[in-house]
Amino acid sequence: MPSVTVGVEPLSVQEIIAVARDGVGAVLSPEAEYEITTSRKVVEALADDVEPHYGVSTGFGALATRHIPTELRADLQRSLVRSHAAGSGSEVEREVVRALMLLRLHTLATGRTGVRLETARAYAAMLTAGITPVVKEYGSLGCSGDLAPLAHCALAAIGEGDVRDADGVLRPAADALAEAGIAPVVLAEKEGLALINGTDGMLGMLVLACHDLGELLRAADVAAAISVEALLGTDAVFAPDLQALRPHPGQADSAANLRALLDGSAIMASHRNPECTRVQDAYSLRCTPQVHGAARDTVAHAATVASRELAAAVDNPAVTVDGRLESNGNFHGAPLAYVLDFLAIAVADVASMSERRTDRMLDTARSHGLPAFLADDPGVDSGHMIAQYTQAAIVAELKRLAVPASVDSIPSSAMQEDHVSMGWAAARKLRRAVDGLTRVVAVELLTGVRALDLRAPLAPAQATAAVRELLRRSVAGPGPDRYLAPEIEAAVELVASGAAVAATGITLS
């Protein structure tokens, strides 16, 4: 099985995706093993120090004033992991847990945490063996990092709790480790704390969301282009010189996509004559580059934040480059929480505009000659009436999910941790929002393709026609009402998989 080499340099998005989604394993680089071994000596040198050192010879959080004698320090680390593995609710997705473990492994690899080499190797071995700890939905406040989710992973590494094996079967961690030939970790000084004190869950979900939204915004441009054709709109407003008057990079990219997708459309050319009295299109058509572009720029900003976090080594206390063990606040999730919330706002707005274009195609007062609800026999048939209801329900949910999590804070640990980020919650709701946007764009695509068919004999552009042909392989053309849910799901698959964008034959920005 191929493996990603985890060293001291930041992991790439492609490497994270490969491990999280494709089941690729992980192995430590020689440089990482050297850094881990070197920093461990710092922790071991402090183990017998009469001075207290947080995470080595003290309790945790509000209990940090308790000095822990040498003979109880292994118990201290094990108790920390057991007590902090306190998650509740549904299981977190496998890809999120694998991303979380990989990112924690990378922090261990930097040598800034002070763990032993065998502990880091155990995480790499678990990833390679496909052993995924069971992590629950609730438990992280995003400060001190993602304590509960990371604690469930650490619990599995010591041979306790439950995991999913490579086949997805729920098993006791001890059994899965034994079958894979992985010795359970016996935690030494500071190791329990080093395994749970990070922003890895928030960061993993941010990286996955930025990747997915990059793909999804291209699909949104495809659906919008089809809608512009179906509604007899114009591509004149997407002209480069007009877009350059407002030089946002995302806007320029979206407009360029729309021009390329609509190039050569006979449908739009059909109404470019003196008899056409329309001066300008509705906002949901005309302003597509401005909204889709702003979302792109938001994703770019979030990706910049993610890249900085990927270059970080988050732990408390941290082993400094010159060999000190110092307490710090780098575990606070605010930088991630803010952009996770920002992305949810952009998702909701892109979806809202998509739903407005769909609704316009269904309304005879605004569709410029299309039948009511694109029905075969309006009144007998309802066409796509309720597909728009589905969109509207999702958009309403996306607006609720756009309410920021990061403005909330509930003090914890007897007021020692008196301001928290709620970044994990921001990441969880963003994942739901990305799924919702996928479905909203899919309904627009499904509806727009049906409307293109109803414009026959006028022909769409080559790129949009190719998308129509792809959809028609799994969804029949206009006709009497059919069971609509499977057709929506077929469109969802084309959007989610990237097939709809690929079908255009155009390299979209």
UniProtKB/TrEMBL annotation:
Pathway: Amino-acid degradation; L-histidine degradation into L-glutamate; N-formimidoyl-L-glutamate from L-histidine: step 1/3
Record EC number: 4.3.1.3
A Pfam family: Lyase_aromatic
Subcellular location: Cytoplasm
Keywords attached to this entry: Histidine metabolism, Lyase
SUPFAM superfamilies: L-aspartase-like
PROSITE patterns: PAL_HISTIDASE (PS00488)
InterPro entries, A to Z: Aromatic_Lyase, Fumarase/histidase_N, HutH, L-Aspartase-like, Phe/His_NH3-lyase_AS
GO terms, molecular function: histidine ammonia-lyase activity
Catalytic activity: L-histidine = trans-urocanate + NH4(+)
UniProt record similarity statement: Belongs to the PAL/histidase family.
Name used for this protein in its record: Histidine ammonia-lyase
Organism per entry: Pseudonocardia humida
Gene giving rise to this polypeptide: hutH
